[in-house]
Amino acid sequence: MAEKAKAPNGKLGVMIVGLGAVSTTFITGVLMTRKGLAKPVGSMTQYDKIRVGRGADKKYLKYKDIVPLADLNDIEFAAWDVYPANAYESAINAEVLKEKDIEPVKEELVKIVPMKAAFDKNYAKRLDGDNVKDAKTRWEMVEQIREDIRKFKEETGVERVVVLWAASTEVYVPVNEKVHYKLEDLEKAMKDNDTENIAPSMCYAYAALKEGAPFIMGAPNTTVDIPAMWELAEQTKLPIAGKDFKTGQTLVKSGFAPIIGTRCLGLNGWFSTNILGNRDGLVLDEPANFRTKEVSKLSTLESILVPEDQPDLYGHGNDEDTQYYHKVRINYYPPRNDNKEGWDNIDIFGWMNYPMQIKINFLCRDSILAAPLCLDLVLLSDLAARAGRYGTQRFLSFFLKSPQHDYTQDEVPVNHLFQQYVMLKNAIREMGGYEADEEID
Ligand SMILES: NC(=O)c1ccc[n+]([C@@H]2O[C@H](COP(=O)([O-])OP(=O)(O)OC[C@H]3O[C@@H](n4cnc5c(N)ncnc54)[C@H](O)[C@@H]3O)[C@@H](O)[C@H]2O)c1
Questions:
Q1: What is the pLDDT of residue 293?
Q2: Averaged pLDDT, 281-306
Q3: 230 alpha carbon to ligand 1 midpoint, in Å?
Q4: Closest to 383 in 3D by CA, of 317, 431, 341, 322
Q5: What is the pLDDT of residues 101-125, one digit of tens each?
Q6: Are strands 325-332 and 355-363 parallel, antiparallel or unpaired?
Q7: How are beta strands 75-81 and 115-116 bridged, if at all?
Q8: For residues 333 and 435, what is the distance between their CA atoms, to the nearest angstrom?
Q9: pLDDT at position 210 over 80
Q10: Mean pLDDT over each residue of the chain, to the nearest integer
Q11: Counting atoms of ligand 1 from 1, which one is nearest the CA of 169?
């Protein structure tokens, strides 16, 4: 049977790469919740109840009553950013939360001053801050980030650290077998300053794992989704997770596609578009950065509605004549700021191929949806480390748009929201010393 998680024994350091809209909404919400001034709505670790045991022994318990989760009061925050604004200034600038929801924790937020970023402008051309490390090589970047982590541990006395990437999406880095497959090749490329194949995010991930911290990738970057990083996670016995927070449109997609699939309806096409005006939208307005996001968003549907499994239903769209047409668009539109509006047009067909349409119009708030995911991913990665779990944590797929999987072994990602939920519940059960007793089918 899987290992039961050990109880924490001290504070948890949460070090966040990027101190923008998502991070400041996350941090402010945690601090406000600690003061009893806000509710962490949307967080599975704070609200969800799952069944443990069967028959007469069955109980429905919150996660904290099944596993030894870190307490919100035991979290210490730190961050890196390209811009020098502290967490208070950045939260105000982001315009996600109202001042009344920020002011009560101003004193704590002001103290979160970002450390200099490991940054390369070629990876996000639209960013122009100067709070940046002076590193001659990628290897130097790694060493400086490691030093930051050690210093933070020393200064705060935290027992454990988790590193979370909530920084901008980098330009698309295709997996290169010569660099990204073996750890020794990856290290060599860092030392040789191969800036084309080594993104700054890889330096954060490498540094985190070397310093004993689990690493979570909240953007669609390739970073920890390469065999060399899996090797490092195995060597250091640490959990990694990624990629890309599953928030608005993709959450809807992974929850709605099963309706079409389970009722054996056909799909001719799914067109998703949205408008978004925050800094994330600005960065994604650059085609090379959008490409990273597009790859991530497109992958969701294909593993839920599989053309090869049901050629009559999903195999005769107009996408290279092999399957339904799937298109994803993101449009930068400043007036909406963080309040994204998404439209989905779904062309389905039923009995005797008669066509029908479904329209979904989601007026969401990007960072409000992402913040609880940050909390859950951080707490559950820390828990997984204490349960001796390491490598890609597939049970965290529930929170991710483009879940990591071993593509070298033809493993397929699980995108189906309800299958992901079963994986999550089973892992919580196991880490609480119960049997993982639900089938994924
Ligand atoms: N909000 C959502 O619904 C959602 C969903 C999925 C993924 N994401 C991803 O989360 C990330 C954060 O989103 P956001 O809205 O907070 O964006 P944001 O632009 O408000 O914040 C990102 C911050 O990261 C900083 N940054 C960029 N590169 C950095 C580096 N190398 N080191 C340190 N800091 C760096 C930027 O200066 C910026 O302040 C984005 O990659 C976004 O694609 C968000």
A1: 65
A2: 76
A3: 24
A4: 431
A5: 999 999 999 999 999 999 999 998 8
A6: unpaired
A7: parallel
A8: 49
A9: yes
A10: 93
A11: 41
Whether the model clears a pTM of 0.70, i.e. scores above it, the answer is yes
Distances (CA, A) of 59 to 45, 49, 62, 63, 425: 17, 9, 10, 12, 13
Name the fold adopted by 249-363. Dihydrodipicolinate Reductase; domain 2 (3.30.360)
Cα 116 to averaged position of ligand 1 atoms, centre (Å)? 15
DSSP string, 168-235: PPPPP----HHHHSSHHHHHHHHHTT-TTT--HHHHHHHHHHHTT--EEE-SS-STTSSHHHHHHHHH
Architecture of the CATH domain 12-245+367-431 = 3-Layer(aba) Sandwich (3.40)
Residue 385: both structure tokens together: 């480390």
Q: Which of 22, 198, 401 to mutate to test the pocket of ligand 1 (most atoms within 8 A of CB)?
A: 22
Euclidean distance between CA atoms 119 and 112, whole angstroms: 19
Residues 396 and 402 sit within 8 Å (Cβ to Cβ): no
**How does DSSP classify residue 26?**
H
Strands (E) in 70-201, as ranges, are 75-81, 115-116, 160-165
Lowest mean pLDDT among 178-187, 283-292, 313-322: 313-322
Confidence at residue 103, expressed as pLDDT on a 0 to 100 scale: 98
Residue with tokens 């990007």: 366
Task: Name the residue ranges covered by the structural domains of the chain.
Answer: 12-245+367-431, 249-363
